[in-house]
Structures are given as structure tokens and as C-alpha cells.
Amino acid sequence: MTPVTPVIAMKETPIKASAHTPASEPHTPAPLAHAHGLQAKPNPEQRLRISVIAGEIGVSVTDMADATGISRAAISDLITRNVWPKRQDADALRQALTELMRSKGCPEDELPGLFTPHTRRVRLAGAPGPLATNYDRRRATPAAPATPTDEEPIDMLIAKQSLTPAARRSFSLFQNPFDGEVTSEEEMFVSDEIRYVREACWQVANAGSFVAVMGESGAGKTTLMLDLEDRVLAEKLDVVLIKPSVVAMEGSETHGRVLKAGDILAAIILTFDPNARVPATIEARKRAALKGLENAARLGKRSVLVIEEAHSLSEHTLRHLKRLQEETRMGRRNLLGILLMGHPELRHTIERVREVFQRVEQITLMPLDKDLRGYLEHRAKLAGKQLADLITDDGVDAIRARLTVQRPGGFGKAAAHVSLLYPLAVNNLVTAALNVAAELGAPVVNKDVVRAV
């Protein structure tokens, strides 16, 4: 292998070679870093460059698992955390992954650095010029202007909007039907997708299952959670919802507090008896929690542990949740169903905990897409209006286009259209469009009004 001559001397933290971690050449920064006064900053998680390049050329974790014969969780640990399987030959894994990447179109000059730490660029103090965030590594020169990527969809969204008095008068709206709040069953928009997710949440109580519901911010997770609570209250169902506080929950102690197994056990104990004395030891807490669950089951009640913002759970807590469910049984019956609700990042955490990955049902809340018109008609009806009174057909099409972004592909990978048509984003955009229409004197929202937002 011919060593690459670095353009600028940079200090990088090498991966320490061990019995299971192969030594590799330090990655050479692209010449662009020198041009913009950048230095390489090693990722503290030791993410490997193969994880980034694989995403660019369309190689999935499943592809890597199939090529190497190890689990997806092990592959995820390897490429994102530099944790190599102890019982596998590291050189063989390295060769298999290299061949896979070559067969999928990875440039030859990228292959030597696949297993080096991935670095992100940070500006040196006083470095002139704007930071280039999109360039072609094969030529190490600035590329075309960046289009929205996984890190940039926020540019296509709109901040929280309130209907102006002028818009209320212009459209004869006493309240904003697009404020997004759902306060009754009648206000709940139920599509086939929502109906499926609602039923999956309900099965957590009926079957004591383990389900993770994931969705982008504004996709409707909180609405579904409140819908479940309302159903329990309205139908006077024998279901006990256990909700540990997640106010300060974070995945590490750096920015908040990790939700631990002891906190969850305490929440179970206090849910059944708010005046109970919570034992100090985990063993005593587990026994007290189990007793509460068993007493509830004898009374015909079903218990569901609900954890919101679950993307902030640590891997250790996920592993403990699986053990908790296994240890809270009465014969063959699960006494505790577990429902996790969080952002899509939760999927990555689950994939790294193989015993959870194989047991939890993962459900993703999809964007409205084909249900966009139905959703808008439903919201307009809440205000006693027909959709045509507020928005034209081409206005609906313009809303769809505005909240559909194109993300560029990597090496040989086609660009993808990504929908941001989640209820919250749609509500904010429509409210802003109604305000603009009133300001311009337009009788309804059409495509030109949407473009003017």
C-alpha cells in the first residue's frame, strides 16, 4: 500500500491496536482543509470512516452483516464505535468489508482509510473565508452548492405560527383549525397509518408486548400518547399507565441525568402507591414493584410502562428494560407492557443492543404524503369550512412541494426525495400561508401565496 503524503501536518488520535482491533494508516485530510484553515478533530466515539462512506454509496448495515456473517448490532458497534467482535478475526472482517465497499463502487483511494477514525472539520481561529460543507472528495475541490441533507431539513420548515387578526377576519375564522392541538376524539385525524399505530400501542396493554414508536419532531407521537390516555379514561379501562419523569433525561450525565433501572422501579412502586416508601436497593425495589404489578393483575388490571423522549435512553437502560420485562411475569403472562416513544435516533440505540433489537417491535410514524388532502379537509371541517374556502388545489400541491426536499446521493447513488409532511410542519406552513394571503388581499391560499411564505 502506497502511503499518502499529507498536505498539512495535523494531529490525530490514532486507534490503538489490540488483539481485536487492527492497526491502520492515519487518514490524510483533504487539501480543502488547508485551503480553509481547518484542522481535523477526532470523534470521541471513534466513528470509523467506513460508516460515512457506506451511507454515501448506499451500503446498509444489513449488507455488511450479510458480507461478514456477524449481527447487525455488532456491525453497528464496529463502524460507529470502533468496537470489534472478540471472537472474530479482525483481518478477515476488514478484508470482507473492504471487498464489499469496492463492489458497491467505493473509490479506490478511499479504501485504505475505511478503518481510520472519521474526522469532522473545525475552523482554526482567524481562518478566512466561509466554511465549505459540500465538496467532492475524489477531486478535493469545492463542489456544487449544497442541497438539504439529513442534517439540514430544518431549513425547509417554518417556526411556530399564530393566525393574525387580519387572517381571522379575512377567512372568518374564530379559531385556527391548524394550530395542531387535539383536545377531543372528533379532532383526531385517523388515517390507515394512524389507525395501525394506535392499535399497536393498544396491544402493548393487551399483550404486555415491547413496542417502540419512532417519528420525527411533529409527527404526532405526543398526540398518540394523549389519545391512549384519553381512551383509558373515557372507556374506564383497567389499564395502569406508568410514566417515569423524563424532564432531565439524557443519554449521558454530561447534559442531564440518565434514567436508570432504579428510577423506573421507583416509578412503578409510586404509581401503585403514591405514599409508599421506596427502598434503597435495586433488589428491594424490584420486589416491591413486582408485588404491585401482581396485585394489579389479580384485580384484572393491565400495566403499561410508557417512556417518552426514549431517544435519550442509554444503551444500558434499554438492556435493563428487557430484563425487567422478563422478571415481571406471573406464570407465562407478562405483567408489564413497555411502550417507547422517541425520535428516529432511537432506532440506532436499539440496533446496538442486540437482545432488545431481537425483541422490540419498531414502528415508524410516516409523513402524511397521500393523506395530506384528507388531513387538510379534516382540519378545515373543524372550523366549519370546506377546504376550497381556504386553499385551492394548486395550493395543496404547492404545500406538498414545499415540504418535500431532495437529498443528494453519494457515489453512484441516486438523489432521494424526502417528505417532511408531518402534521406540525403542515400546520405551521398553512397558518403562515393564511396570514400571507390576508396581507396580500388574496381570497384563498394558492400556489403563489405558498411560494411567498
Find the structural class using helix and strand composition: alpha/beta
CATH superfamily of the largest domain: P-loop containing nucleotide triphosphate hydrolases
Helix % is: 25-40%
Strand order of the largest sheet: 6-7-10-5-11
Low-confidence stretches: 1-44, 120-154
What's the structural domain tally? Answer: 3
H/E topology pattern: HEHHHHEEEHHEHEHHEHEEEHHEHHEEHH
User: Major sheet: size, sense and barrel closure?
Assistant: 5 strands, parallel
| Large-scale geometry | flat
Structure explained in plain terms:
The chain has 17 helices and 13 strands. Helix 3 (61-68) packs across helix 5 (90-103). It has three domains: 31-142, Orthogonal Bundle (434 Repressor (Amino-terminal Domain)), CATH 1.10.260; 153-180 and 368-452, no CATH class; 192-364, 3-Layer(aba) Sandwich (Rossmann fold). The termini are far apart. It has helices spanning 31-35, 49-57, 61-68, 72-81, 90-103, 165-170, 192-207, 221-234, 261-272, 282-298, 315-327, 345-351, 354-357, 372-382, 393-402, 423-440, 447-452, and strands at 38-42, 119-123, 135-136, 141-142, 210-214, 239-242, 302-308, 329-330, 333-334, 336-342, 361-364, 404-407, 416-419. Strand 8 and strand 9 (333-334) form a beta hairpin. A five-stranded parallel β-sheet has the order 6-7-10-5-11, sandwiched between helices. A two-stranded antiparallel ribbon has the order 1-2. It is α/β, with parallel strands linked by helices.
